[in-house]
Design brief:
The chain is α/β, with parallel strands linked by helices. Helix content is 26%, strand content 24%.
């Protein structure tokens, strides 16, 4: 992976990387915050949190806007934030809408043409990027959590349930928690997964939870939702 830039931040380092993704078939970018506890050459493996961003966002959005690095530095947490979709894939119409295509991968592996070849964000995040950061950085693979906002909250709830062996915790901020029941999700799932709604249920956090026979995260799942959110209804 190629280090594009790094900046000192709360005693650690804020880094931006690019690498050739096998899952996507294109270069992908992601950001990492390394706390001071991960900086020493012989540092112990540290816990990590994957943050999945929302519609129109990039790998920079969370690291620039949230101010989470100060808390990650206090608690020794590595933060990892991927981009939200492939870029410059050459798919006709990929950038025509803000809620579908570029910046709107919905963290699923698309099956419908022309998206199926490149829009494989589930495999990218839950498999390829997970393996990359746990092998190349001081990340403890047994202590990785996932969280996200809006579309990324949807991704966190779904990937945590689909890959419970990978993620120890899950949180979501104003998530698209039931994408099969809202316009954004219906548009994305129809375009990426086709019209068979039984396939949608495999990528719907609410539907997945309804199918569970026991609590997948016994310690609890945090969902933070503002009651004045204009999208809540």
């Amino acid at each position: 992976m190629e280090l594009l830039s790094e900046h000192g931040c709360h005693g650690g380092l804020q880094r931006y990387y690019r690498h050739q993704s096998a899952a996507i078939g294109l270069p992908m970018r992601f950001s990492v915050y390394l706390p001071p506890q991960a900086m020493a050459p012989a540092a112990e493996l540290q816990p990590a949190l994957f943050f999945l961003a929302g519609l129109t966002c990039t790998e920079e959005t969370f690291m620039v806007k949230a101010g989470a690095q100060q808390y990650a530095a206090q608690h020794g947490l590595i933060l990892v934030a991927p981009d939200t979709s492939p870029r410059q894939a050459g798919v006709a119409g990929e950038a025509d809408a803000w809620d579908f295509g570029v910046g709107a991968g919905f963290y699923v592996d698309a099956t419908e043409a022309p998206w199926g070849q490149r829009w494989r964000m589930e495999s990218y995040v839950a498999d390829e990027l997970f393996r990359l950061v746990t092998s190349e950085l001081r990340v403890d693979p047994q202590r990785v959590g996932i969280f996200g906002h809006s579309m990324g909250g949807h991704g966190a709830l779904v990937l945590a349930q689909r890959y419970p062996q990978r993620f120890r915790s899950v949180s979501a901020f104003a998530p698209i928690a039931a994408p099969s029941q809202c316009p954004w999700g219906v548009k994305a799932f129809s375009g990426y997964l086709g019209e068979d709604r039984s396939r949608w249920a495999q990528h719907d956090g609410t539907a997945l939870m309804a199918a569970q026979v026991s609590a997948p995260f016994p310690a609890g799942i945090l969902v933070d939702q503002g009651l004045a959110d204009k999208f809540l209804a």
